[in-house]
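Shipment paperwork, digital attachment
Item: protein structure file
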Amino acid sequence: MDASAAKFIGAGLAAIGMIGAGIGVGNVWASYISALARNPASKAEIGANIWIGFAVTEAIALFALIVALIALFA
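Attachment content:
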């Protein structure tokens, strides 16, 4: 196997982590919308928490992207 082929395979495998992050972001916002539908008065209480959950989940996607780029270009 050629070294460049191994880089492409490694980058592709590292990018799979972005799929999980996409699913996680969808779950975060779906839960937020569901919570607001059940109790609209709780918007102020859970507003900050939703952004923290979104940021942490999105950071996982960025980490996977960085690992894929490092595997590809290093």
